[in-house]
């Protein structure tokens, strides 16, 4: 990850501009279909100015993905082993659904990277992501062993929450096409449905 040695206000502003532009371009065209010229145009910066901050498309993508992974993991980090088990699971699900609603481009960018085999973030998946998921899965496993939740595979429970919440960001065009103009906002019904689903799965 390439960063300026010292960030002035202008440098911070330009890095934010580049990050926002890269998010827009990468989430639309994917890594392979995106270019530095596209990102510079989207950021309203010259290509040499952009390359002052990031020497390559790869460097921009790496910076963006590292920042995104941190944000993406925050809801799981907040799952509290001292909380009420079912409430903690449902709160995590709602946070993930809210992220899909508020940050669809970030979700699509992450999904695009995974579909391609995660060539640029594979190490992060095998270390930071895996360690956090293992930690929280063991917490959930403990709740189940203590009789607070119905037995289930906690790792696959987490995978299910990911897939059932991020679907509304990654496949939003499909969701809106199927639901039609009568239901322009799928998220309230999605939250109600997923709350019922996970409550039934996890209640003893």
What's the SSE blueprint?
Layout: H1 9-33, H2 36-43, H3 47-53, H4 57-77, H5 85-102, H6 104-115, H7 122-145, H8 154-170, H9 172-179, H10 187-202
Keywords: DNA-binding
GO molecular function, one term: transcription cis-regulatory region binding
DNA-binding region: 35-54
Descriptive keywords:
single chain, 204 residues, mainly alpha, Tetracycline Repressor, domain 2
Give the C-alpha Rg: 19 Å
Number of strands: 0
Query: What is the annotated CATH architecture?
Result: Orthogonal Bundle
- Helical percent range? over 70%
**CATH class (first level) name:** Mainly Alpha
Main sheet, how many strands, which sense, barrel?
none
Number of domains: 1
Uncertain segments of ≥5 residues (pLDDT<50)? none
- Distance N to C terminus: 47 Å
In CATH, what is the homologous superfamily? Tetracycline Repressor, domain 2
The average pLDDT score comes to 93
Strand content: under 5%
CATH fold group: Tetracycline Repressor, domain 2
Structural class category = mainly alpha
The global form is: globular
**Secondary-structure element order, N to C:** HHHHHHHHHH
Organism: Pseudooceanicola marinus
Pfam families: TetR_C_3 (PF08362), TetR_N (PF00440)
Protein name: HTH-type transcriptional regulator RutR
DNA-binding region: 35-54
């Amino acid at each position: 990850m390439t960063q300026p040695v010292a960030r002035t206000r202008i440098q911070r502003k330009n890095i934010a501009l580049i990050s926002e532009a890269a998010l827009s371009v990468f989430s639309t065209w994917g890594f392979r279909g995106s270019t530095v010229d596209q990102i510079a145009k989207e950021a309203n910066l010259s290509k040499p100015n952009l390359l002052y901050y990031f020497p390559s498309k790869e460097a921009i993508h790496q910076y963006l993905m590292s920042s995104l992974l941190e944000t993406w993991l925050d809801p799981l980090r907040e799952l509290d082993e001292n909380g009420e088990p079912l409430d903690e699971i449902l709160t995590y699900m709602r946070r993930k659904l809210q992220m899909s609603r508020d940050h669809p481009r970030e979700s699509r960018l992450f999904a695009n990277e995974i579909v391609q085999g995660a060539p640029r973030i594979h190490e992060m998946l095998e270390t930071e992501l895996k360690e956090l998921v293992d930690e929280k899965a063991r917490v959930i496993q403990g709740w189940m062993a203590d009789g607070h939740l119905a037995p289930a595979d906690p790792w696959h429970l987490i995978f299910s929450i990911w897939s059932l919440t991020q679907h509304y960001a990654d496949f939003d065009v499909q969701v809106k096409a199927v639901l039609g103009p009568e239901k322009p906002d799928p998220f309230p019904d999605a939250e109600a449905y997923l709350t019922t689903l996970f409550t039934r799965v996890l209640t003893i």
